[in-house]
Amino acid sequence: MSDKAYVLFEEQQRNRGIDLDQVKERLKALKVETPSWGYADQGTRFKTFQKVGVPRNTYEKMEDAAQVHKFTGICPSVAVHIPWDKVDDYAHLKEHVANLGIKIGAVNPNLFQDDDYMLGSVTNSKEAIRRKATGHLLECVDIAKTVGSDILSLWFADGTNYPGQADIRKRVQWMYESLKEMYAAMTPDMRMLIEYKFYEPAFYHTDLADWGMAFNMANKLGPQAEVLVDTGHHAQGTNIEHIVAYLIGEKKLGGFHFNSRKYGDDDLIVGSVNPYELFLIFYQILDAAADVDPGVSRTANNIAYMIDQSHNIEAKIPAMIRSVLNVQTQYAKALLINLDEVREAQEAQDVLVAENAVRKAFEFDVTPLLQAVREEMGVPADPMQAYLEDSYGQDILARGKGGASW
Amino acid sequence: MSDKAYVLFEEQQRNRGIDLDQVKERLKALKVETPSWGYADQGTRFKTFQKVGVPRNTYEKMEDAAQVHKFTGICPSVAVHIPWDKVDDYAHLKEHVANLGIKIGAVNPNLFQDDDYMLGSVTNSKEAIRRKATGHLLECVDIAKTVGSDILSLWFADGTNYPGQADIRKRVQWMYESLKEMYAAMTPDMRMLIEYKFYEPAFYHTDLADWGMAFNMANKLGPQAEVLVDTGHHAQGTNIEHIVAYLIGEKKLGGFHFNSRKYGDDDLIVGSVNPYELFLIFYQILDAAADVDPGVSRTANNIAYMIDQSHNIEAKIPAMIRSVLNVQTQYAKALLINLDEVREAQEAQDVLVAENAVRKAFEFDVTPLLQAVREEMGVPADPMQAYLEDSYGQDILARGKGGASW
Amino acid sequence: MSDKAYVLFEEQQRNRGIDLDQVKERLKALKVETPSWGYADQGTRFKTFQKVGVPRNTYEKMEDAAQVHKFTGICPSVAVHIPWDKVDDYAHLKEHVANLGIKIGAVNPNLFQDDDYMLGSVTNSKEAIRRKATGHLLECVDIAKTVGSDILSLWFADGTNYPGQADIRKRVQWMYESLKEMYAAMTPDMRMLIEYKFYEPAFYHTDLADWGMAFNMANKLGPQAEVLVDTGHHAQGTNIEHIVAYLIGEKKLGGFHFNSRKYGDDDLIVGSVNPYELFLIFYQILDAAADVDPGVSRTANNIAYMIDQSHNIEAKIPAMIRSVLNVQTQYAKALLINLDEVREAQEAQDVLVAENAVRKAFEFDVTPLLQAVREEMGVPADPMQAYLEDSYGQDILARGKGGASW
Amino acid sequence: MSDKAYVLFEEQQRNRGIDLDQVKERLKALKVETPSWGYADQGTRFKTFQKVGVPRNTYEKMEDAAQVHKFTGICPSVAVHIPWDKVDDYAHLKEHVANLGIKIGAVNPNLFQDDDYMLGSVTNSKEAIRRKATGHLLECVDIAKTVGSDILSLWFADGTNYPGQADIRKRVQWMYESLKEMYAAMTPDMRMLIEYKFYEPAFYHTDLADWGMAFNMANKLGPQAEVLVDTGHHAQGTNIEHIVAYLIGEKKLGGFHFNSRKYGDDDLIVGSVNPYELFLIFYQILDAAADVDPGVSRTANNIAYMIDQSHNIEAKIPAMIRSVLNVQTQYAKALLINLDEVREAQEAQDVLVAENAVRKAFEFDVTPLLQAVREEMGVPADPMQAYLEDSYGQDILARGKGGASW
Q1: B375 part of a folded domain
Q2: CATH number for the domain that contains residue D81
Q3: For a 10 Å CB count at each end of chain C, is N or C smaller?
Q4: Where would I find the Xylose isomerase-like TIM barrel domain in this sequence (chains A, B, C, D) (predicted)?
Q5: B141-172 residue pLDDT tens
Q6: What is the 3-state secondary structure (H, E, C) of chain B?
Q7: Which residues 299-328 of C are in CB contact (within 8 Å) with D?
C-alpha cells in the first residue's frame, strides 16, 4: 500500500507546485542531534525513577545514541555534557564514537552542580568561583578541540531566588568577561551557542532570562556567538516562531533545544503538546532559507537542531526516537508549504488565504513521503517499529538499574 | 523608641475605630504550623545542595522546629511526612516532641517516591498498587491516632505526562474509592485536607488539578473532608483570595500551605514575591470570620495554617522564621482593615473608597504592634535577631553535611 | 484523484480496525452552531474596524448564517444574543429563519452593556438592578419558548476590578437566587448552560471564574443546568481536555464555545493556534461516549457545539466557514482513534504506545474522508472554495459599511 | 499627631543611617506625567461606560490634569495623543496649558485607529500606508517642536492575528526605515521612547513584542532612542525589575508607562495588584542611580515616569490621583533602602540578610514622610482628601455625559 500511497502523494503535491525532489533532498539533509544525558535516568525534584537498562557510563550512552541514528538515519551526532561525560581519554572516546558510526556534537559545560556554584558560577560575586567557572568553560573548549566538535553550547543556571540577593547589573558584566575569555579561546570554525531560560532553577531572576539577553551577549562577543532557542524556556503565551524569525533576520540564531511543555520547562517529548508550533517554527526557518539576503538564508540553513528532553517515566531510546520522528514529521510538513502561494496572499493582504496556505501543509499526512525518503536512505520505513522488533532494547536490560543520571 | 512607637500606633488605630485589644488577642491566637521536611535538605531537579547543620533524622527536625516556636511563639506544631518521618515508635516520638514544648500536627502521606507509584498511586490502573497506596493512607490515619494529630493532609503527585497515557475518568473513581476507605477510618474529630496542584511532577494532567476537583472530592466524602490551598499551586494570574473566599462561603476550606512563587511552584519564602496577595487572602478570611452565617465564620476561624517551602539556597531555620514572621505581619495588617468602612463603601458602590479602605491597612507599619504582642507573649520582640544571636544555629553545625533530605 | 484517495484511505483505516461507516455516520450527525454576533462587526478595545457587507440587522445575520449551513451542511442552528437580536416579533423571526433552512439555537442574555450593569448585573449590590437583570433572564426564557429553542446560554461579565470593591461571597448568593428563578421558569426540555471565564472584562475577580464555580452553581440548580466550556476562557497552561473529561464524568458538561487564543481571550478562528488541543478535546468526548456508564455516554453525546469568535480583521463568513471546517476536521481525526488500542496500551501501562495510539490518528489527512462525507450529504466537497466561487459574498457588499456590531 | 509621627519616623530612619534630607530632596524632584487620555472615557471591547463629567475636548482634559498637579505637586506635565488631542492651534494649546501651571509632555502618535492601519501601519505591506504612517510620525515631531516637548513616545499596535498573515522579517525592516526617518527629524534634545507589548490588539504576533525587540531597534537608531517599559506589557511571571536593571545597565531605559494588571493588559490603578513589584522596580533604579558608572547613573536619573491607565469603572481624576500617590509611596519606600547594607550582605553572600535589607524598607509606613514633604512643597498633606473636599469634582459634572473617549 505504501507505494500506492506515495504515488498518490506525489501526484497531489506536484499539482500544488511542490518540487518533491527538493523536499526529499532537504529531508535527507536534516540532522537532529541527540543529547547523551537523554539516555540517562532523569526525574523531577520529587523523584528520579531508576530504569532498568539505562547506560552506566558515557560509552554506553553513545551506544544507545548510535541506535537512534541506526534506525532513523538523521542523528549522526551526540551532544555531551561535562562533567557528566567526563572521561580520562577524550581521543579514545572520539574513536569509540566514530566506530559506532556517529560523532560527538555540541559540548555542554555544566556549571550548576558543584557546591561552589550554588549562588552563581560565572556571575558569582566571589572572583575565585568565577575563575573556576571560566576554567571549566576553557576546559570545554579544549575538549571540543580534542573530540572534533565545533559547537560549544552554553546554558547557565545562574540567577537568584530573592530580590536583593545579588547585584543584577554586575552579574551581567561578570558573565560577559568570562564568556569573552572563552570566546577568545575558540578556533575560528567554532560556534558558541548561548541559551536562555525564563526560570528554574533560579526562581527570582535568571541572568540570561530571555532571547534578548542572550542576543545582546552574542552581539557583544562577536560573529561566532549565536543564540540557542530551547522551546521550553519561554513564558506562557510567547510566540516562539516570532523569536525564531526575528533572530534569523538578525543573523544570530545558532541552534535549538527541542522539547515540549504544557506549563513549566517540562522537557516532554517534542511535538507531544502542540505539534503545530513546531511546524510554524520550521515554516519561519524555511521562509528565511529562501530569503534573497544571503546572510539570512545562510543563517537559516546553518541551524543546529538538538533534542533536549527529560524522559521521567517513559523508555529512553524509544522516547528519543519518537522525538526525532516528530521533528522530522513537522519539518516534512513545513517543506510542503508553497511559499509563493503564501507570499501572493500576503501581498494581496488576504488574511484567510495566507493563513490557509500555511495551515493546509500541516494537514497532509507525510507518512508516504517519509517512508520513501527512509527507503532511499537505507533505514527502516518505520524506525520505531524496527527498533522495537530489534533485540537491542532487550539486551541492554542486562545493565540492570542504577544507571547514570544527571 | 518602641514604646513611643506603640503609643503612637495605638492612638492612630483607635482614631480609625480599630479595637486593638481584639487585634492583639487574635494575633496571640494565630498558629502557623511548620513542616518537618522544611528543615531538611531540598533542591531542584538540577541539584540539591547539601547544607551543614541540617537535621539527620526526625528527632532533630523536631528540635529545629521547636526553635522556631521558641522564638516566634506561634508555631506549636509540626507537620510530618510519612515515610520521611517514619520512626519505630510513634508514641516515643510524640513524647519527645511534647518535651520540646511542641506537638505533631498534620500527618502527610507520601505516595510519590516509591517505584510502584511512577504511573500513579491511588489512581494506578493496577489494583495491587492502588491497594498498597490505600494501605499507606490507612497507616497514616493510625499514625495520626498514635501521635494525637487530627489532620490528615493529602497531596497526590498522581497524573500523567502524555495524552492517552491513562483513563482520566477512571482515575477519578479510583481515587474516590481509596479516599472513601481512608475517610471511614478516621475518628470523628479528624479532618482530611485535600490539596490540589496545577502541574508538577505530572506535566500533562494532574488528577486533582484545581480547587474544583478537590472540592468536589471533599463534597462526596463528607463533612470531615475539606480543601487545602497551597498558594503556589495555581496557574499564573489566578485570583487565589477569590478561591479562598469562595471555599469559605461553601464551608469547605480547611487549610493552607503557604509559600511564594514567581512562576512555577517555586516554594519560596512566604511573602517574598507579592506580600499584598497574602494580605488579601487574610482579608477574605477575616471578612468571612465576621459573617452572620455561623457556618461561614466557624470555617474561617478553623483554618489550619501551614508553611510548605523548599529552602534550596538559604539557611533553613532562619528561612522558616522569616516565613512565619511574614505570615504574622500580613495577618496583623489585615486585622487593621476596618471592615465596616469597607462595607459602607461597597454599599455606596464607591469603588475607590472601598479599595482604599482595604489597601490602607496594608500600608501601616505593624512592627510596634507585633513587638507589643510578642512582649505580652513572652517571646523576643525581634525573633529573627534573637535566633541569630542565640547559639543554636552554631551548635547544630556539628551535625555536618549529609542531613536528611526529601 | 479524490476517489483514489478515498479508496486508499478506506483501505488504510480498515486495516487499522476503524469502522468507517460508523465514522461517517457520526460525521454526518455532527452539528456546529454559529453565533449571530459572529457575522457582525467586532473589534478590540482599541478599534472596531467596520467591514463592507456586514449584516445590518438580525434578519441579515440569519441570512449569512444560512450560507454557512448551505455550504457546510453541519450548521443548522444560530445562537442569538438579546438585545443584539431583539426584534418586535420573534415568531416572525422564527419563521424567517425556518425559511432559510435553519433554526434558532441557544438564546444568550446580555447583561453587560446596560449602564446599570457596570458594577454587576445579577450580582449587583443594588436589589433593583439584580431584579432588572433577573427580568432579562426571564425574558430570554420566554424568547426561547417563542423561537423554539431549548438552550439558554449564560455568560456573565460580572466581577470586580479591585480588592475590596465588592463582597465576593454575597455575590455568589445573589447570582444563585437569580438563576434559581430563571431555572424555575424553564420548561422541562430546556437546558441552562453556564459559562465561566477567567478574566475580562472584570480584571480582579470574575464571579464565575472557572469550571468549578460554574459546576457548583449547576449542581445547586439541578439536572437541567450544565457547564459550558469556552476554549478561550482559561488560564495559560490549563489542560482543557482534562476539564472536559472531568465534567463529562460528572455528567455536567453541556456545551462548548469554540475559538482559539494565544494568550488572552483572543477569540480567533478555532484551530488556528493549537489544533491538537481541539483533537484531544474530541478524543475525551469520544472516549466518554463509549463509556459503559449510560449517564456518561449520554452526556458525551448530548453536547452543544457552538462557535464563539471575534473576526476583527478577516472576512466574516469565510472565517466562520473556516472555523466550522476546522472543528469538523479535528472531530474526524478523533474518530480515527482506535480506542481499543489506546485502552490496551493503558492497561499494559505502556506510555509511549498509548500516546502514539492517540497521536497517530491526528496525523492522518482526513480530506478524502470529509470529501466523501460531504458528497453523501449533498454539500460541496470543498465548502470554502464553493463559497468563494458563489456570488453571495459579492452581493452583500451592497450592504455597505456600518453594519451591526456588538 | 502627624508631627509626633514624623519625629518618630525621623529618629527611626536616622538610626538606620538613612539621610532623610536627601530622601526628601529626591521625593520633591520626582515627576509623574499623566496622560490626557486617562481623563477620557475608556472601556473594554465589551463596553465603554460613559461617565458624567468627563472632559469633552483636549482643553478640558488639560484642566483635569492640572487638578492632579495642583493637589499632588508632582504631575507638572501631560502626555498627549495625536489625533485624540488634535487641535487647530498647538501654540495656543501650549499657552493654555502653561496658564494652568503645567506643560505638555510626551507626544504619542496614534497609528491604530485609522482604517488604513487594520493590517499594519509602519509595517504595512502597502508602501502608501507606510508612507502615511511615517507622515504621521513626522507630524508628531513637528507638534512636539511646537508645544515644546522633548519626548516622542511610540507604541505600535502593529502585528498579526494568524500564522502566515504577513512577512515577519520584512515588517522589522519596514518599521526600522520609518523610525529612522522620524529619528532624523528630531532635534538633538529630543528622545524617542520605544514601547513594546506582549499581545493585544494583535493576537498572533506583535511587531515589537518584548524589550529585546524595542532595545535592538533603539540601538540601531542611535543614542536618542530608548526603551519605554509599560508595566502591563509582559507575559505572566516576567521579572520586570530585572528588565529595568538590565536596560539601565545598557543605558537604554528611557521611560515607564505605569499601570497594574492581574492577567492581561488590564491597565488598572498603579500599585493595586502587587505594590511590592513597583517598589522593587524603584529599588533597581535607585541602585543604578548610585552606580559608579556615570552613564548608568545618568540613565537612572533621567527616566520619564508616566501613568498609562484605563479607568473603566472608577472616577477619573481620583483614580489618577490614587495612582500618582501609589507611585510616590513606593518611590518613598525604595528611598529607605540602605543600599550599603544590601551590598554588604550581597558581598557576604548572605541571602536572607540581603533580602531582608530590601524588604524591610517596604514595610515602613511612609505617610509621615510624605506628609512632611508635601507640606514643604505647599500641597495638601492628603491630596486625595483635599481633592474630594474641593468643588472641582462637582463642578465638572455639568459637562454631562458623552465626553471624549479613545
Answers
A1: yes
A2: 3.20.20.150
A3: N
A4: 88-266
A5: 999 999 999 999 999 999 999 999 999 999 99
A6: CHHHHHHHHHHHHHHCCCCHHHHHHHHHHCCEEEEHHHHCECCCCCCCCCCCCCCCCHHHHHHHHHHHHHHHCCCCEEEEEECCCCCCCHHHHHHHHHHCCCEEEEEEECCCCCHHHCCCCCCCCCHHHHHHHHHHHHHHHHHHHHHCCCEEEECCCCEECCCCCCCHHHHHHHHHHHHHHHHHHCCCCCEEEEECCCCCCCCCEECCCCHHHHHHHHHHHCCCEEEEEECCCCCCCCCHHHHHHHHHHCCCEEEEEECECCCCCCCECCCCCCHHHHHHHHHHHHHHHCCCCHHHHHHHCCCEEEECCCCCCCCHHHHHHHHHHHHHHHHHHHHCCCHHHHHHHHHCCCHHHHHHHHHHHHCCCCHHHHHHHHHHHCCCCCHHHHHHHCCHHHHHHHHCCCCCEC
A7: 310, 312-314
